[in-house]
Amino acid sequence: MIKEIVKTTLLNCSLEESDILKYKNQVQVIHNTLPQFELTGWINAPLQDQQEILVSIERVASEIRECADVLVVVGVGGSFLGARAIQEAIMPYFGSTKGGIEVVYVGLNMSGAYIKQLLSYLDKKQVYINVISKSGGTMEPALAFRVMRHYMEERYGKKSKERIIVTTDAEKGILKGIADKAGYRQFVIPATIGGRYSVLTPVGLLPVAAAGVDIRALMAGAKHATEELLESDLSHNDAYKYAVMRHMLYKKGYSIELLASFEPGLNKFHEWWKQLFGESEGKEKKGLYPSTVNFSTDLHSIGQFIQDGSPIMFETLLHFHEIEGDLQVPFDSRNEDGLNYLSNRTFNEINTISKQGTALAHSEGGVPIIQLELPKLDEYHLGYLIYFFMKACAMSACLLEVNPFDQPGVEAYKRKMLELLKEN
Ligand code: PA5
User: pTM of this prediction?
Assistant: First the structure.
């Protein structure tokens, strides 16, 4: 087995290994005190016996796959981003879904057009709902669930009760009350795990299991990461190395971190990463702005800025050595496009070389680059990477001396919106 599942390296940085290691003691202290924060149940969760919960998720997921064409997940922020990230990273780009069914999301915006079109789209399809909210009172999913509940009751009558699954707190919240009263089946979001750290609980696992993702492999990868990243020594913990590197670049004046991938299936994974770091670190007027790009698409749009624009960003290149599915460039006797010199190569090989070329060019443009390499894009390595980023994020926020697990700033917009809604 490869020891380092995620290999963190610096491709072009004015950071010296010896300077990175100066953080050793600070990292050790944070590592030891991290579990004292509230909402750190995720740190050891993958090491606990998951058998019972996995069996019950698999049972419900298999029922959903049997009885529905579409699973509608109602949720926002940490209650949907992780599931969508895994689903899109693992499932095929087009059509068939590895034995799973289509999973769509609602409650992540307030667009009337979106929800209206969703209802028409569901017509003639068999539907299940999974409404996910830890607090049970977030406006966007609460409003969407009101609509979806009416829809299900109109379509399925009393039987709608069997087709609505609730994922929420074990004891409190409006949604918990609704679920108890209506007799909906429920999955619990552990009280000790906050939204953006909850993807490896039923929050993320039920939707992706319905989509056809192998959640056992995902959790095995997360368990492997949990074991390896229990290491408190910075020199042997790549998640902590990554946290320190990005912290040092921030201290050097870089204000934006660009997470860059070369596989379009990772676009939604980027969104999950953005929330994790943005909501965990952006407080008290501190924090790197987390942004993302998908190459080569974005090389033809924002690539110009990265290469030549304001020197405010560094890049974190996420590279999977093996991607399932590939195609050789065909030989063409006409060679009118002059591309026969590539006909002994596959697209994935060309993509890897494009990554190397991009890294070299951006380095020359003065952009510091951190590279995160993984052997393969599959459930196991994705599970590992998810845990890797959560651990790195918690360390990184603590280096900034902010609480990684709260989000006081999000309340501000909610208060203003409610004031306006109640005024008019
Ligand atoms: O990370 C968080 O805690 C937030 O992003 C929440 O996930 C998001 O606000 C949704 O909250 P809830 O699950 O309570 O509806």
Answer: 0.96
